[in-house]
Amino acid sequence: MTILTFTLIMILGAFLAGFIGSLSGLGGGIIIIPLLTIILGVDIHYAIGAALVSVIATSSGSAAAYVKEGITNMRMGIFLEIATTIGAVCGALLSTVAPTSFIAVLFGLTLIFSAVNSLRKKEEHIVLESSPLAKKLKLDGTYPSHDGEIINYGTKNVLGGFSMMGVAGMMSGLLGIGSGAFKVIAMDNIMRVPFKVSTTTSNFMMGVTAMASSVIYIQKGYIEPGICMPVVIGVLFGAMAGAKILVRTNPKKLRIFFACLIFVLAVNMIYNGLNGKI
Fold it and tell me: Which of 43, 90, 101, 204 is deepest in the core (most CB within 10 A)?
């Protein structure tokens, strides 16, 4: 395979990854890593490095829009990033010494968890009274509803959410994904933050988390420009196209379809990992 052919395949594959990731809400890394490792035979460490770079690029673009709309809780995001960055560095260090087969199997299991979580019914819950620690840290906030009304909300169980964010960061650094499912669980289920705020704040945090772990991958030589550049270009354009399609389609049907696709990829990754093919 020539370099040009390899690059074109990566751009096309990354475009599909960004497109699917945008429509499913799971990010492009979940498609990029199986594409690079299973189809193109790239070492999983280089695939994770490329996925992290794409997470930084896509998170930076979309996070700015959510912050401008006033939905993202920046104070909460910056506080929780302390846990995610520590976890991300630990995960990246672990990734450099862990067997590739172990990473592949864990990646597959995480894909299944993320796919199932994306199909979970999202219920909007508003906590009006924050816990004492949340009040002290000033983690409560407001966000505009679809009709322009300003909604106030509080926050609970800060330490539980902070601990879960550490796990989310570790999974991000170890597997090269945004680990949005874990971050949303931390804010939505544990801290009882409204779902709209938790998803946008999670997106705001992803870029910083990926940046922290990517430093370790750069030091180890796993960030390869020849792989990262076409991946970032493809993912960015794919995510933009997916966002436009999402407005005109039924998101529930799309999530079911892509959850099934991701489940197949997950089983493939687990199978190849258990058989030592990755």
Answer: 204
